[in-house]
Design brief:
Length: 129
């Protein structure tokens, strides 16, 4: 007796996995468009330290800040930025990780430094009725 290679349940599973993979590829392609006009604004004590156009960075850019015994290193790359190192006690700023979307922010309270992402991202985060 000759049994089929795939059963109907197997075909449904393969189709579902293919749809999920396609959705992830489309989502990643849309995510790449969010860096069109993405700028990182670094402030300390509400004063502008640096404004960086993240689409124009060709190589990693390191920014070192020193305030009241707290030394920090901020790393900016094409389309993203983060606190790389900090001498602050809890390192929440470092644990925040990469910022890649408009409207996101990383803050170090002890040194009063913040990184805010600004851009023309038209992506919807939440939809309520």
């Amino acid at each position: 007796m000759n049994t089929p290679m795939f059963k109907s349940g197997d075909k449904i599973l393969i189709l579902a996995l293919a749809v999920i993979a396609a959705a992830f590829m489309i989502w990643n392609a849309m995510e790449a468009d969010t860096t069109k006009n993405l700028t990182a604004v670094i402030t300390q004590d509400s004063k502008l330290v640096e404004k960086i156009d993240l689409r124009s960075i060709d190589k990693p850019l390191y920014i070192n800040l020193h305030e009241e015994g707290i030394h920090q290193t901020i790393l900016a790359e094409k389309g993203r930025i983060r606190f790389l190192k900090s001498d602050c006690p809890n390192k929440t700023c470092v644990k925040t990780g990469w910022l890649t979307r408009s409207g996101t922010r990383a803050v170090c309270l002890p040194s009063r430094v913040s990184i805010t992402m600004v851009g023309d991202n038209k992506q919807v985060d939440v939809l309520t009725y």
